[in-house]
Specification:
single chain, about 350 residues, mainly alpha, ABC transporter involved in vitamin B12 uptake, BtuC, two-stranded antiparallel ribbon, globular
Length: about 350
Amino acid sequence: MLSRLLSNDYPRNRVLAVLLVALLVALALTPFVFPGVKALNVAAKVLVFTVLVASFDLLLGYTGIVSFAQTMFFGIGAYGVAIAFTRLGAGWGALAVGIAAALALSFLLALAIGLFSLRVRAIFFSMITLAFAAAFQTLASQLSDFTGGEDGLTFKVPEVLSPAFEFQLFGRDMDGRLLCYYLLFVTALVLVLALLRIVNSPFGRVLQAIRENEFRAEAIGYRVVVFRTTSAILSALFATLSGAMLALWLRYNGPDTSLSFEVMLDVLLIVVIGGMGTIYGAAIGAGLFIVAQSYLQDLLKLGSDATSGLPWLSALLSPDRWLLWLGLLFVLSVYYFPTGIVGRLRAMTTAARRPR
């Protein structure tokens, strides 16, 4: 059963297996073990970014395509849900219509972008995707009648997913936010398992062959353009679903929330930290990066207060310098884990099994 769920793609490293199980348990028990709104928001963001980063890794890590349009599809999913709830009301039908419309638009745009790979390669293709993303962000900001412009859209979700819906579970008072969180948890788990199935299927093996040597794959008889375009479409659809997850959780969406280039930078950093070409790396990288991004200021404040007797050290540990320390942590992670955390751990296992 476990073999089928993981598509025979086991962690192949004890430390990695422990990290994955710990992350899964922590996300599953966050509402009960880590009380507070901030912890729940951080966990929900980890779930959303795990799917988003995994969808991007399908392009970058498995197919070898560098695309900066991932945030565009992420924003399409978020805006699809936001506009549907705003126009059609807070019902499940509106959610279905919003997701379906967003997936259809993402499919068409991904197909159009994928066809550019017929003539354009490498950095030129990346610049085209960046232009698409920038144009869509500008369009979302200007079409204020539909998207709310720079202010974005605030909307209501089905009552069962709202904080106003209250119920008791094991003698404890709960609300709809808990149900919304577990809806995101199950959705993220299903989507990650689906991506694992895709990359470990014959289709995924062809994508990796294209990544290693595109001309050799074409010489063997594979239609490279078809596989590259299909990969771009699948990646866009998964990114769209992650955007829908974000909007459903926040009950708000705006240009800076889902279409900002900062989101794309975060995705790139998480891919590098976790390891390219590994779906597990998306989960590990998202967990570490989001938690560090959310709690680093709090840790620095504790360190600054503890070293108040040393003014120079206290100033260095000031919470205002959290970006400096986050950048330093990223540099150290790249230095010690050049192939990402998952790549390094798997390489250690391979080296240990190799006969001396």
